[in-house]
Each structure stands twice: as C-alpha cells, then as structure tokens.
Specification:
106 residues, mainly alpha
C-alpha cells in the first residue's frame, strides 16, 4: 500500500516538486549539463505553458493539494512542474549517455 503524501495539505504538490527537482538538479550537476538543460527548458517552456493552460482551462484535469497561488492563469506548481520534468529527463539521459560516451555536455 502506498503512503498518503497528502499530509502536506496544500503544499503536497509543491513538496513533491522540490524532492524531484532536487534529484534533477543533482543529476544535471553530476553530468555537467546544467547549461544545456537550461537552454532546452527555456525552449520547451512556452509550448508546455500553452498546453498546460489549455488543458486546465477546458477541464481536462484539476489539481488538488496545491497552494492556490496562480501565475499567468495557471497554478505556480504547474510552472515548476514544467521545469522539473524536462530537467529530470535530461538529467537521467545525460547520466546514462553523456557520461558513458566520454563527453560532458555543457
């Protein structure tokens, strides 16, 4: 049985992003890929923002256990999510492929 992470109340979503964001940061730092990841995230962010804003606006999903703070029409947690997810993916990718090939992406 999974433990109930709702113990953080309205900060639950934010708390999970801090945990996974920290892991992503460590992975990117380990792979020396912080700058490369930042460039990629900056390019992806506007696409992710429009997609997220639209799906929330039309009611595809609702977010429970969040702070209630909105920025530019979407929850602040979603802005963080749009940074953490690609950072985590890139961090894993660079640790699997960037280091093993002998190149340190910058």
């Amino acid at each position: 049985m999974l433990s109930d992470i709702g113990v953080f109340g309205p900060y639950t979503y934010l708390a999970t992003e801090v945990v996974w964001g920290s892991i992503a940061l460590v992975l990117l730092w380990r792979a020396n890929a912080l700058r490369m990841a930042a460039k990629t995230i900056v390019v992806l962010y506007p696409i992710a923002y429009v997609w997220d804003w639209y799906t929330l606006t039309v009611g595809v999903f609702a977010i429970k256990l969040r702070t209630g703070v909105d920025l530019l029409g979407i929850p602040i947690e979603e802005h963080i999510f749009m940074i953490v997810v690609p950072a985590l993916i890139l961090g894993i990718h660079e640790n699997l492929h960037g280091l093993s090939s002998g190149s340190n992406a910058e």
